[in-house]
Automatic annotation (TrEMBL):
Region Disordered, annotated ranges: 28-47
Species for this entry: Seriola lalandi dorsalis
PANTHER family membership: LECITHIN RETINOL ACYLTRANSFERASE (PTHR46678)
UniProt GO BP: retinol metabolic process; vitamin A metabolic process
Name by which UniProt lists this protein: Lecithin retinol acyltransferase a
Signal sequence, renumbered to the chain: 1-17
Keywords: Membrane, Signal, Transmembrane, Transmembrane helix
Length: 228
């Protein structure tokens, strides 16, 4: 039992310490440069902007005139054609429903609405990506061509894929990579087999012997065992 508790604590610590969806293209030994004194220079058209959020990082391309193009999930375009309503600031409810429906838009918002009160990092990926960034004007034009509705996937077509495609020519997401690495470490840990097996037995005790409880109790631990 102590071993199982240790396993659960380790995995919870891993998720919280890694900040699973936070994007970081730096190697473990690299550090962010010290903050510059005074206000940062204003972004230029075509700059790649990052906004750290609670559990993930949001990305956009600066278009100039205080405007930012960014990919964000939104359910409202599926429900209405009212452009004024769609252009309003996206609420958390709209965003979550957009994720579930896999519907997003590349839209243009003000720099303030994009930042949502957070600090903005400019072109941080340029030092970390292997590909050289396109000229800023080309980046902005590539972003403008993408404006409109677009299929969404939390792992395979998110805001980070959008900006890396616009600035470097190929879509990539470090946030997705970190999630997959963490998931792989959990699957490869053989204690996952014990945990899922115990949970399956508890479900059978609580809900009775049925196909809906018995089959997962057998198949999930077996799959994790074979994948580990």
């Amino acid at each position: 039992m102590l071993q199982l508790l240790t396993f659960l604590v380790e995995k919870l610590s891993l998720l919280s310490s890694l900040k699973l969806f936070e994007s970081s293209w730096l190697d473990g030994e690299d550090q962010e440069p010290p903050a510059q004194r005074g206000p940062p220079p204003p972004p230029r058209r075509g700059d790649l902007l990052e906004v750290p959020r609670t559990i993930f990082t949001h990305f956009g391309i600066y278009l100039g005139d205080n405007k930012v193009a960014h990919l964000i999930p939104d359910i409202l375009p599926v429900l209405t054609n009212d452009k004024k309503l769609i252009s309003s600031v996206i609420t958390n409810k709209r965003l979550i429903l957009g994720c579930l429906y896999k519907c997003a838009t590349v839209r243009v918002d003000t720099l303030e609405d994009f930042a949502y009160g957070s600090n903005i990092l400019v072109n941080r990926m340029d030092k970390m990506m292997k590909a050289q960034a396109f000229p800023n004007e080309d980046v902005a034009q590539r972003a403008e061509k993408q404006i409109g509705g677009i299929p969404y996937s939390l792992l395979w077509n998110n805001c980070e894929h959008f900006v890396t495609y616009c600035r470097y020519g190929h879509a990539a997401s470090r946030q997705t990579e970190k999630f997959c690495e963490c998931l792989k470490s959990i699957i490869r840990d053989q204690r996952s087999v014990i945990v899922t097996g115990l949970l399956g037995i508890i479900s059978m005790v609580c809900f009775g012997m049925a196909a809906s409880t018995t089959l997962p109790t057998i198949l999930i631990p077996f799959t994790l065992w074979m994948a580990g």
